């Protein structure tokens, strides 16, 4: 594995003070494209993600995804000498990422006012449940709460049934991606002004930003969109249809010409050529009739047969993938989306590849996720601490690794 930093962000220095998901995912995305990430974790325990979900050889396998391409500095931020180390690192950094509750950084003397005074070029990403301002700023806010407040959870259910959560931490991930966008925009602006700035990302706002027409429909028509199961309200036809083998085919026939091809494929040219169904509004008015026609056709065929027929008709359709399907899919393989790392015990672990794909300066997986404090001494030497100073910090439990 080539540990040399390459990619469009090579040379960018980033300090990561967050833990678990949102802040670290943002840093991971930057790291994949060449940024140098110094991840600061508490001595002894490290980032709690190290112990989340399934464990191999003492560490979560998720850790190998979230913390690849990073260096680990185990540092107790509650201690003044550790806070001074962060200030020394910030003096030379381009970006600092944190996702503590609002006020925590200020309590350590590491708020924006202090850090921008040290380094006016610093770009600081702050991710929290509800943002750095407003009446909810001090409330604890995890992704699941943000998904509910942002409007997503209300929609994820069958009509009349209890809303369910998306099976991954989508609120955290959406916030992280918004944070990366903010960082890149701030770095671009810094090229003109020479100054850094603070990026305030709230988890619930990142979710809300993806809610499409939810608010304007309520504003203009008083509509509160309700759960619709696997359908997409107001857009037809787009649904999941049960097939003869018990599986489901997801069929999106909501383009005007696509709808006509879909109706031809299922032997319902009477619907495809009906002038009343030529546009989306007419199809929405008769969506139950259309869904019944598609459902009747699909129910007589296996998922494979349904998809083959719709592929031939150039109608967007697909099956519901499990992770086993993903791991075996040739398209995932061809696109480099199934990567592999060798763990310390020699096990070849499959991990997701790098997204997005850049043609000339692609991202890469350069080094495995670090052990806790693996790079503590090296990082401290780089900012000028002597071996005696490092030893003292170790003896006091402020630094580990």
Give your account of this protein's structure.
The protein is elongated. The chain has 401 residues and is an alpha/beta fold. It is built from 19 helices and 14 strands. It folds into two domains: 13-209 and 334-400, 3-Layer(aba) Sandwich (Rossmann fold), CATH 3.40.50.10540; 238-319, formyl-coa transferase, domain 3 (2-Layer Sandwich).
Instruction: Please give the CATH architecture of the largest domain.
Output: 3-Layer(aba) Sandwich
Task: Note the main sheet.
Answer: 7 strands, mixed
DSSP, total strands: 14
Distance between the termini: 23 Å
The gross shape turns out to be elongated
- The helix content is 25-40%
Q: What spatial order of strands do you see in the largest sheet? A: 8-7-6-1-2-5-14
CATH homologous superfamily designation of the largest domain: Crotonobetainyl-coa:carnitine coa-transferase, domain 1
- Residue share in β-strands: 5-15%
Features:
3-stranded antiparallel β-sheet; 2 domains; 401 residues; alpha/beta; Rossmann fold; 19 helices; formyl-coa transferase, domain 3; 7-stranded mixed β-sheet
List the helices and strands and how they pair.
Elements: E1 13-16, H1 22-32, E2 36-41, E3 55-56, E4 59-60, H2 63-66, E5 70-75, H3 80-92, E6 95-98, H4 104-107, H5 112-118, E7 123-128, H6 143-149, H7 152-155, H8 170-193, E8 198-202, H9 203-208, H10 214-221, E9 238-242, E10 248-252, H11 256-265, H12 269-272, H13 280-285, H14 287-298, H15 303-312, E11 317-319, H16 323-328, H17 330-334, E12 338-342, E13 348-352, H18 376-382, H19 387-395, E14 399-400
Parallel strand pairs: 1-2, 1-6, 2-5, 6-7, 7-8
Antiparallel strand pairs: 3-4, 5-14, 9-10, 10-11, 12-13
